[in-house]
């Protein structure tokens, strides 16, 4: 099968009825929980960028990045309506429930994509606009249409899309890309596999019903546990890099190592717990902690940036 056949497959079962969608259904299409993480990581990337950035442009940039992320979510749901209907985790989304049709979701996503990219490009700069366009393209075409249905490495490669918002935000401020935002990219990129493979382990039946080749269904749970452990070790090293390379102080380094130790303990626990009930508890704990891990890590980065900005004013007083 090729990408054209995927599009044909997703064009099947178009319902011509009048939409019953409400505002809440369109908000659900935006994947607001994912969007909130995108906004936060982009904010950190923007705060780290050197130079002065006008508040209006900063707000416009974050809004465009958020809308672009929401557009990606809407297009993802439009293309995956057949998959979502087979999985208990996604069966209540607007398209499987019949609240919104696929063409409506596709039109909504394409419209948001166009205006978010054009607004960012025209009002801020075209480096940031182009990066946002590439992020949307990567998530929708490369990941959703090309990787997710065909390879167990879908999360690894597709994770690049979720890791790009801090880079887009940095480019919005500076018009360039530098080492610091690429470090943020690397942290999110290596965080993604252990985070989603933990989910895939306790949702493997869901993915099997939908025919998605997630790693536990292709390589088996034991191989997935090993991969989670290996990626967690790499993540700890990558997360410490901003401190080791001198971009941030010891406070960030200590926090990153403490959080990394928590991730490592839970990843080892996932690796060792093979009995089903124990395995489910271990993977759920890792999945939940991984969200806290990324938020706390980026919150520490943001706090250190804010402290640096306020320190001269406090010292001057």
Give a topology summary.
Elements: H1 3-11, H2 23-29, H3 32-48, H4 55-79, H5 81-84, H6 102-123, H7 126-147, H8 154-163, H9 165-174, H10 179-202, H11 204-210, H12 215-218, H13 221-244, H14 250-272, H15 276-316
Could you characterize the architecture of this molecule?
- The chain has 317 residues and is mostly helical.
- It has two domains: 21-175, Tetracycline Repressor, domain 2 (Orthogonal Bundle); 178-310.
- It contains 15 helices and no strands.
- The chain has helices at residues 3-11, 23-29, 32-48, 55-79, 81-84, 102-123, 126-147, 154-163, 165-174, 179-202, 204-210, 215-218, 221-244, 250-272, 276-316.
- Helix 4 runs parallel beside helix 7 (126-147).
- The radius of gyration is 20 Å and the shape is flat.
- The termini are far apart.
The CATH topology assignment of the largest domain is Tetracycline Repressor, domain 2
Helix/strand/pairing category: mainly alpha
- Report, as a whole number of angstroms, the end-to-end distance: 67 Å
CATH architecture of the largest domain: Orthogonal Bundle
């Amino acid at each position: 099968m090729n990408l054209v056949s995927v599009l044909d497959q997703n064009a099947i079962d178009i319902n011509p009825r009048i939409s019953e969608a409400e505002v809440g259904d369109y908000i659900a299409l935006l994947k607001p929980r994912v969007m909130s993480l995108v906004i936060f990581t982009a904010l950190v990337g923007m705060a780290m960028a050197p130079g002065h950035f006008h508040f209006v442009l900063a707000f416009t940039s974050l809004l465009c990045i958020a809308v672009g992320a929401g557009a990606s979510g809407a297009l993802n749901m439009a293309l995956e309506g057949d998959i979502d209907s087979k999985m208990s985790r996604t069966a209540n989304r607007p398209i499987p429930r019949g609240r919104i049709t696929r063409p409506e979701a596709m039109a909504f996503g394409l419209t948001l994509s166009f205006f978010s990219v054009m607004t960012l490009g025209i009002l801020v700069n075209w480096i940031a606009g182009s990066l946002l366009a590439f992020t949307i393209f990567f998530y929708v075409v490369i990941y959703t249409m090309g990787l997710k249905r065909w390879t167990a490495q879908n999360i690894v490669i597709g994770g690049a899309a979720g890791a790009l918002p801090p880079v887009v935000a940095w480019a919005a401020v500076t018009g360039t890309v530098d080492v610091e935002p690429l470090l943020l990219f690397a942290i999110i990129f290596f965080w993604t596999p252990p985070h989603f493979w933990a989910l895939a382990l306790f949702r493997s039946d869901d993915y099997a019903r939908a025919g998605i080749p997630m790693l536990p269904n292709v390589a088996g749970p034991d191989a997935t546990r090993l991969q989670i452990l290996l990626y967690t070790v790499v993540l700890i090293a990558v997360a410490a890099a901003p401190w080791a390379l001198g971009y941030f102080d010891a406070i960030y380094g200590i926090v990153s190592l403490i959080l990394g130790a928590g991730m490592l303990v839970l990843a080892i626990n996932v690796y060792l717990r093979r009995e089903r009930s124990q395995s489910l508890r271990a993977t759920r704990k890792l999945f939940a902690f991984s969200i806290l891990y990324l938020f706390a890590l980026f919150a520490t980065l943001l706090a250190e940036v804010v402290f640096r900005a306020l320190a001269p004013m406090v010292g001057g007083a």
